Amino acid sequence: MTKSIHLFPYSFPSAQTLLVVVAVLFLLPPDNFAQGVGDNSNWDDRFGWYGVTGSVFTIDAGDCDMYVGGEFTNQRTSTNNYVARWDGGTWTILGDGPIEGADGTIRSVTANGSDVYAAGSFASFDGVVVNGIARWNGTSWVAIGGGVRGDRHREFTVYDVIVFGSEVFIAGDFTFAGEAVANNIAHWNSFTREWRAIDNGVNGIVYDLELQGDWLYVGGEFTEAGGIDANNIVRYNLLTGEWQRFGTGVNARVNAITVEDKTIYAGGHFSKAGNADASYVASWDRAIDTWSSLGQGMNDIVYALELREEGLYAGGAFTTAGSSNANRIAFWNGSRWSSLGGGLDQTVYAIASCNLHLCAGGDFQNADGNQSPFFAQWDFSRWNILSSNESNGLNDESRAVAMVGNEGFYAGGTFTTAGAVTANHIAWWNGNGWDALAEGTDGPVNTLLVDGDSIYVAGEFNTAGSGRDSNVAIWNHRSKGWESMGVGVNGTLYAMASDDDFLYVGGDFTEAGETGAQNIARWNKQTGAWSSLSPGPNGAVHALEVIDGKLWVGGDFTRIGAMSFSYLATYTLATDSWDAVGGGTNGAVRAVAGADDGKIYVGGEFTEAGGKRVDHIAFYDGTDWQSMEDGLTEGVTTTTVSAIEIVGENVYIGGEFTLAGGFPVGYLVRWRGSWAPLASGVSGSLPSVKSLSANGSQMVVAGDFATAGEKPSVNIGIWTFPTLSVRDRSGIQRLELSAYPNPINALTRISVGGLSSSKASASLSVTIVDPLGREIASIYNGTLLQDRVHLQWDASSQPNGIYFAQVRLGDTREVLKLIVR
Three-state SS for 152? Predict the structure, then answer.
């Protein structure tokens, strides 16, 4: 479903010139739920997916469309693997990608016309049970005959899939294909739609298949094929059913095979081929039935081979090929090995070629010294990264963001790659791209604070740059260098706040500098000395904010010294004394922010504040706690508010929740007396918003998500504040229109909100018109008596198409676009 806002001129037959704001909004419920803030066009589209975010094990060049698979997840996330496509200019994901995707590693991808086959160790793909092998039909992933399985619940993996006409050949580590006993190798006929074994199969794992003419070449780790002895490499005639070995084979696993006329090339773990010494790569000459080495071979494992007209390319874990230095990839011209530039800095698992390019995938981060995570392209003179201007996402969660005016922002978290830049846990977005902060930190960054040119960085690390900095350090924004803060603190930091003289830090620690400090401490900016705020809380501190001479402290604590405090307290800086806040909350506090009107907003894991039901968010007005409608609820695994950012009279809140005031939102919401979503918000597999930072025109959103505003936006996003105010010559402001649901099946509710009190006695009419301006229905005609009006339209009798709700308030007119489906 497309969800977007457009601004365009529109004239009704009898109307004067209008400024029209047309909105098709995501989820905008009625009654106490306000107009959505902007639409998905307000989300930046530059933080999409780089393409691959982990090890690449397979590449298929297709018709110069590169299909890539591998292990794109990490141990922390619950996201799944996927198949990616590079069309020469843009990365796309086939299917639901990391939100659903494959629940195991993808080992092989091959394209056959509009069909793309993926094989691996997964049981499901995009929620469909496929068991090791799946087909992309152009719109979705589908199963192939029940897939494969092991014997007696043994795990299975399909390591290779190749397609010829209606036949799909697979090989790997499995016992059954469909109901057929296959023993690690099988084929599927697309016409008969059944699996068949290839003779009696082989007695070990198969890692690679190659088809030439009537012969199917098989490489792996086995000693027998179809009843004949065959050490790790063999071929099978598809017409006669004959197995044929290559002498005595090789003495260890074969990972890759490629065939040229009468020459068969093999690469793998072996050191001997037949009687010949052959270090990890060898060739078999069918004319003389003899194995030969290729020069001096390699100094480590070969995982991939690719044959082109000019010669043979090999990829693997090696750093020398023959007598040449060749980092993980090399070229054999028939007589000698040579390098491809400076090569890659880690293992290559896959190679594929197309026209004037050769692509490599693996574990590497750099190609010839330049950033190119996991995937790179060789144009036969230099290495290139495959990315677009929209490929600036992060490869793991961001936990903190801090804007520096209009210059850009810093992001910190668990990520190690920002776009195509290696950035260990922290990076700077300069408005156009990412910059690393020297070597970054050696562990996650949890919180950031900007104080002039000093960027305070805190989290769970031992080093920042080349210096030893225990969990907290300073990055100088102007000189671009790291600065130490003494010996730091001896535990994890989650929060920071600042005033003119001190930096305050909160977390889970017992010492700051060489001073005992329980979970909270301060650092003197002038002297560089640490001191405690004694006594400290008895649990971790997660939120700090300095407001009018008081340090607000929230976290997971119930006592400070001998006094009871329910997860929230204030520390008066002038008197060094602790005070309770209205009875506190009944659960952990994760975020605190103060507004200009004196209200203090508090969010976290609680459901009560001061004994009142508030559901994870509330504000303190100086004397009492106030609820915010029905609060924020229904997180997927837990419900919490992690971030609060105040911009003028707007309070932006992020965390793990799917309902605001009982109505759906995308983990991010605005409060201005009522709840409003930021268009579609963010989404992903178990998504969350961890941090927010805003200037006057934009807000940066950090967290663990795959999309923002239904656009790829991986773990970081930018929301541009929309201009929703409309002024006519009478001075009306903030006329807000929304409809839910929209698109419409039957009933929709239309909200007209944000109405100026100066129009309190004006005549209001709302009519539904078609694109020609013809009236379909009148749903309101009367005097404006309140700030917001909620109406209902039954579209069940209308044909599908585009309609408009025409709103007339005095001499002001606006329209809201509606779609009936």
Answer: helix
